[in-house]
Design brief:
- With 103 residues, the protein is α+β, with helices and mostly antiparallel strands.
- The protein has a single domain, classed as Glutaredoxin.
- Helix content is 24%, strand content 20%.
- The chain contains two helices and four strands, in the order βαβββα.
- It has helices spanning 35-48, 92-102, and strands at 11-16, 55-60, 72-76, 81-84.
- Strands 2-1-3-4 form a four-stranded mixed β-sheet, covered by helices on one side.
- The longest helix is centred in the middle third of the chain and has 14 residues, at 35-48.
- The N and C termini lie far apart (32 Å).
Length: 103
């Protein structure tokens, strides 16, 4: 039976890591995009800042905004949600600042 419950973490971050075959529509984790690398860097930041157990970084499937990607959704237990498009390793601190200040 499905049960509704609050988020198990203060913040959950979903990063698109969808990939497609060469020649198909672009995807957030295809070559030249940084979806998977963003997940890994955010996970390291969570550990470095002592936020394990409070913030969970999750891989996501396609958000159907591929041309705007990589895409990241940050959702908090208080119901606030932020959507980031065109995420990259260069601007990852902007994403991290959102969940660090709230934790």
């Amino acid at each position: 039976m499905t049960a509704k419950s609050p988020l198990p973490f203060e913040t959950m971050v979903f990063v698109c890591t969808h990939q497609r075959a060469p020649g198909e529509r672009t995807a957030c984790a295809n070559a030249g995009r940084e979806g998977q690398e963003i997940v890994e860097r955010l996970r390291k930041m969570v550990l470095d800042k002592g936020l394990a157990g409070k913030v969970r970084i999750c891989k996501s499937g396609c958000m159907d905004r591929c041309e705007e990607g990589p895409n990241v959704v940050v959702t908090r237990a208080n119901g606030q949600t932020d959507y980031f498009s065109n995420a990259s390793l260069k601007n990852i601190k902007n994403i991290c600042e959102v969940f660090v200040k709230d934790s």
